[in-house]
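Hi C.,

You asked whether I'd gotten around to modeling the 381-residue construct. I have! Everything is below, sequence then structure, no commentary in between.
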Amino acid sequence: MRRHDRFVLTFLVAGQLAACSCGSHLRAVKDPPPATSCAATGSIAGRVCAPDARTWLGGATVEVSGQDCSGGSFHRQVESAADGSFTLPGVPPGKWDLHIALGTFTHSASVDVAPGAQLRLPDDRACLDPIQAAVVQGHGDRIETLLTNLKVKVTTFDGNTGGYTTSALPLLRDLQALKKFDILFIDCAAASAKGQIDLGDPKVAEALKAYVEQGGSVYASDWAFLFVEQAFPDRFNFDINGGSAKATNPFDTTMLLGYAPQDVTATVNDPKLANFLGKQSVKISFPRDQKTHTITVHWGLMQDAPPGVNVLLAGNARMCAPSDRACSKSAGTAQNIPLAVTFHAGPEGRNGGNVVYTSFHNVEQSNSDVEQILTYLIFHL
């Protein structure tokens, strides 16, 4: 090899070594080893409870998010178990805002996680905050009693015949008045007089529909079906004396074909509800009014669930004899009818609210199944 060639080869090799050394140096600066504290993650554990601090709630979303110690985005999310318990693993050390959500209910808390340690929250630190609920009172239901026991903030409006036009009607026809409340509950027999349900104003259905589509939620029971059926006619089909599946306002309650008294063994179709109850079937009582005899025994028996409606509970139920307006005897059995349904309503691309209807309510039940079902529904609206 000539001297000139050896010089060129030596120069090239040295240049390559220098380039390797420089590249190694650049990589070391660009990718430093992670800090020890970033790797020493901890966890957060606790139990989600209702505002009463003693009713444990499964199915709640529990999450933390933000930036970790290396500047990267961080998010952890779990769902609470049936007994309300949860554990968020792999949380970087530091202060975080813990957020809990279930239906309309939420709660936020500031937490401080130590490196490699589990932060165990006291039982009352993961309780959902109270919401504002409006209750239109009727004759045959007392959902406000259950709400009050759960420490939900309740404002009642007289839906009985004597005070309907001076208390409940101004609320129900006014969208802005409704939007002051997170959830609207309508008791059975609200707006009823002498066996008829009269919403009192065509604007009621219009306001209720807009309220739900803009994020509010509504629960109606038994005779209060007319409120949600008028607002969302495509979501409900009822067995009505005469063969129609739709009801006009005002509505004669003796046209409803659910017979009482009877107990219905209902299948729990919704997996989350079944998990909450710890059982796949429940007993639903449809009692005859033994005290005042002022309320007829007919109840809202649904034919089926149209598309988009989720059936929570279903069962076989005896029907009133169509020719017997007093419903003194039953005639035939309706198979696998919906007893509790729910659906979501809202314009495409916008968040809407939920509607829940149950054929039963929480008065004169001889077991605790119904109270547990209603508790579940309250926290999933």
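If it helps when you're writing up: The radius of gyration is 30 Å.

Thanks,
B.
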